[in-house]
Specification:
heterodimer; A: about 220 residues; mainly alpha; Methane Monooxygenase Hydroxylase, Chain G, domain 1; 6 helices; about 0% strand; elongated; B: about 250 residues; alpha/beta; Rossmann fold; 6-stranded mixed beta sheet; 4-stranded antiparallel beta sheet; 10 helices; 10 strands
């Protein structure tokens, strides 16, 4: 294996490492909320700088490879995809941090009601992130298309969550401050799913050389 | 009448050197006022194909061809082709700058003189015009009587381009025109080719893939005499359709 192939392999591994850090941040942020673990929330917030630092490191490595190796064809698509993916991953980390901030606030107050939608959304979203990155690593398959489809489920749950909380707020306006924070959390998860969708779209670009963002994906693809 | 876009049409074209088939059944069109780059590993037949476009391969005794190369719709391998006239209309610039061992002026005036132009004022005009188009006029206008061989490598190469331009060609063929030049001279030649493209159709053979990517509109990838892929340069370098092309341009060949 040539030096360049070694470098690409190392780059792939760094992205997977970033991905696993972000997955953990999402998982822990939701756990800190649902299980009212404020220490865990603080820990996730504290860890975010590691995600940021790795994002910068990967970006720099991509720029270095473009400058020194002048990648072409699939190498070029891989590296440009990597550069975009890390931006999405870093944003996901920030959103997990936001969930933790809301968790810290909500954990100080009595539990409004049992969490139903948010854990479901978190589970789907984490799966999307994992599969989007798996698709990035393993290459071309149906996986990225599945990820894009699942985004609709998250969107539906966001709406459902909002409607349920809205009716509670109408019944009892005193709970509005807490309920609004819960809608924020759902919105953060919905945004995370959007970033996972971006990654899946970039992976499809990497494989096919065709940009499919802002398009309807044809059935059977 | 609509002007034809394709200046060359290469049809089922093969070249043999003795028993060796150097170019195998190539089909390709060369579009007018575009830069077409031919890339491929050494020995893939790219220079042979290039030299076939103005029948320079005729000079190799063991060579013979099959198929057709249509220039403005007429097969240049027809028996009654005027090869000298063909080479005037389809000029060539080589890898190593090869000015004649004469003055800058004589280098450029040589072709027009052979064509029968004798009037000094007319020759002066042709020489100046060609040197301007080759972007070397400013550098040599005060030393037109000096030897062409006294110039720098990059200047000599532009002088050779001026020499070709003085023949008012429609097509210029370039065989690795910058491989003996430093990066600055290379950039000058590349800029020049893009400027010349407005008036001349250009076909260039290059080992420098970045060069093909930088300057060409279309790229041809050849391997073992076969034309593997031909397409927009963007497509070839971002998303090639053939696995061999991809392996070659990503440097993972063989």
């Amino acid at each position: 294996m040539g030096i360049f192939d070694e470098e690409l392999k190392a780059l792939r591994e760094e992205i997977l490492k970033l991905g696993s850090m972000v997955e953990a941040a999402i998982r822990d942020s939701v756990e800190s909320l649902v299980e009212r673990k404020s220490d865990l929330a603080r820990e996730v917030i504290k860890r975010d700088h590691l995600i940021n630092a790795l994002e910068v490191k990967i970006d720099e490595e991509c720029i270095r490879l473009i400058a020194l190796r002048q990648p072409m064809a699939r190498d070029l698509r891989f590296i440009t995809t990597a550069m975009k993916i890390v931006t999405d991953l870093e944003r996901m980390g920030d959103l997990a941090e936001n969930i933790c901030e809301r968790a810290l606030e909500l954990n100080e107050e009595p539990q409004l009601k049992h969490f139903v939608n948010i854990p479901k959304m978190a589970e789907i979203t984490q799966g999307m992130v994992r599969d989007a990155l798996d698709a990035f690593v393993t290459g071309c398959s149906r996986l990225p298309y599945e990820v894009i489809k699942r985004d609709d489920e998250v969107d539906d749950l966001t709406v459902k969550n909002f409607e349920e909380l809205l009716s509670l707020m109408i019944q009892d306006p005193k709970i509005i401050p807490l309920a609004v924070k819960r809608t924020y959390v759902a919105k953060y998860l919905e945004r995370i799913a959007d970033h996972a969708t971006n990654i899946a779209e970039m992976v499809i670009y990497m494989c096919k050389g065709k940009i499919i963002r802002h398009m309807e994906i044809p059935e059977g693809e | 009448m609509v002007e034809k876009k394709n200046i060359f049409e290469i049809r089922d074209f093969s070249v043999y050197y003795g028993d060796l088939m150097a170019v195998k059944n190539n089909n390709l069109v060369i579009e007018k006022n575009k830069i077409t780059a031919i890339i491929g590993p050494s020995g893939c037949g790219k220079s042979t194909l290039l030299r076939s476009l103005n029948r320079m391969n005729d000079l190799i005794l063991s060579s013979r061809v099959e198929g057709k190369i249509l220039f403005h719709g007429v097969d240049i391998y027809d028996r009654d082709t005027d090869v000298i006239e063909l080479r005037r209309r389809v000029g060539m610039v080589f890898q190593k700058p090869n000015p004649f061992p004469s003055s800058v002026y004589e280098n450029v005036a040589y072709g027009p003189k052979i064509r029968g132009i004798k009037k000094k004022s007319q020759l002066d005009e042709i020489v100046e015009n060609a040197l301007v188009r080759a972007d070397i006029w400013k550098e040599v206008k005060d030393k037109l009587d000096e030897s062409g061989l006294s110039l720098s490598g990059g200047q000599m190469q532009r002088l050779c381009i001026a020499r070709s331009l003085a023949q008012e060609p429609e097509v210029l063929l370039f065989d690795e025109p910058t491989s003996a030049l430093d990066p600055i001279s290379t950039a000058n030649i590349e800029n020049l080719l893009q400027e010349l493209q407005k008036t001349v159709t250009i076909v260039i053979v290059t080992h420098n893939m970045q060069q093909a990517a930088r300057i060409s509109d279309y790229t041809v990838f050849m391997y073992l005499g076969e034309l593997i892929e031909f397409g927009d340069t963007d497509t070839i370098f971002v998303n090639p359709q053939n696995k061999l092309t991809e392996e070659y341009i990503t440097g993972r060949f063989g």
